[in-house]
Specification:
With 294 residues, the protein is α+β, with helices and mostly antiparallel strands. It has 2 domains: 5-97 and 218-293, Alpha-Beta Complex (Conserved hypothetical protein from pyrococcus furiosus pfu- 392566-001, ParB domain); 102-209, Conserved hypothetical protein from pyrococcus furiosus pfu- 392566-001, domain 2 (2-Layer Sandwich), CATH 3.30.1760.10. The protein is built from 8 helices and 20 strands. It has a 6-stranded antiparallel β-sheet with strand order 9-11-10-13-8-12. Strands 1-2-6-4-5 form a 5-stranded mixed β-sheet. The protein has a 3-stranded mixed β-sheet with strand order 15-20-17, with no helix packed on it. The longest helix is centred in the middle third of the chain and has 17 residues, at 166-182. The radius of gyration is 21 Å and the shape is elongated.
Length: 294
């Protein structure tokens, strides 16, 4: 039996959220999103110079779908590693949330001319769209009646309809992203509420509202061998383990059983510190709590 290390988080209501930390074969993992090549190259180079894998990736415990850590998986594959440390969770636990990224575009120029240019492009590509309100856009996205919305600085809204499945809808999102990049827009990604705040305060030229993604969408897409474009999903789990600092040399190959025994022994010898989340460490962590090994 493969040895695992368990992190158990107790909710006030009495429920327990369990994370299984273990070493798993990379070939057993299933990705659900494409990687961003420049980010992958940068991470690969960093891992070449590193001795340890700092953090575990997050996976669904039933199907081994990677929820967070796509780039770490691909970077280790490129470096011919066979194993990776995983934090396996019950993906369908109600405390686990899957959210989507909104796009925020900033570009100089007349808003009306920009909207006309985007409208011509949509017509030329054969996408159906109409003027709508912000309230109707949010309702339409939630019901699946609309695929994407573009909200301009003057708060006019274009709702784009599509009968395509969720992956194809995000292919359209990616094409619109490329359009704005080609015309010189700066692109950033944030949560829905933050994007709406920026457009209402006049700090963005256009925001792109994206369709919601369900947990079933993520699992079915990964099991079918398909991939969403980058920056589709944003997973928030109640707690996240950090700084396992597992030696990379034990992930190159050899005995999986031995690697797991070593991981369990290492983690058992460390102090597990529980700290409040929603903070920036090496990135922003939206989880309520972080479990840090020291």
């Amino acid at each position: 039996m493969i040895k695992v290390y368990l992190v158990c988080h107790h909710f006030k209501e009495g429920d327990v959220f369990t994370i299984r930390l273990n070493v798993a074969p990379i070939d057993d993992l299933k990705l659900h999103e494409e990687i961003i090549e420049p980010a992958l190259v940068k991470l690969t180079e960093a891992l070449k110079e590193s001795t340890f894998l700092w953090h575990p990736i997050i996976t669904d415990d039933k199907h081994m779908v990677v929820l967070d850590g796509m780039h770490r998986v691909c970077a280790l594959q490129r470096l011919n590693y066979k194993y990776i440390v995983t934090a396996q969770i019950d993906y369908f636990h109600p405390s686990v949330k899957v959210c989507n990224w909104y796009r925020v575009f900033c570009i100089e120029g007349d808003t009306t001319k920009l909207r006309d240019m985007v409208s011509r492009w949509l017509r030329g590509e054969g996408y159906e769209y109409s003027l709508t309100s912000l309230e109707d856009l949010r309702r339409g996205l939630g019901k699946g009646e609309l695929s994407i919305g573009l909200v301009f600085k003057d708060l006019t809204v274009l709702g784009i309809a599509s009968g395509k499945d969720i992956v194809e809808k995000y292919r359209i999102v990616a094409r619109i992203d490329e359009l704005f990049k080609r015309i010189g827009a700066e692109v950033s990604y944030c949560a829905e509420d933050e994007a709406l705040r920026l457009i209402r305060e006049g700090k963005a030229t256009v925001i792109e509202a994206t369709p919601p993604v369900s947990k079933q969408d993520v699992i079915q897409t990964a099991l079918a061998g398909r991939l969403f474009p980058p920056k589709t999903t944003r997973h928030i789990i109640p707690v996240r383990p950090l700084f396992i600092n597992f030696p990379l040399k034990f992930l190159r190959g050899g005995s999986l059983t031995l690697a797991n025994k070593l991981l369990s022994k290492m983690l058992s010898s460390k102090l597990l510190l529980k700290v409040r989340g929603r903070i920036s460490v090496d990135r922003l962590y939206e989880e309520d709590f972080l479990y840090i090994f020291i």
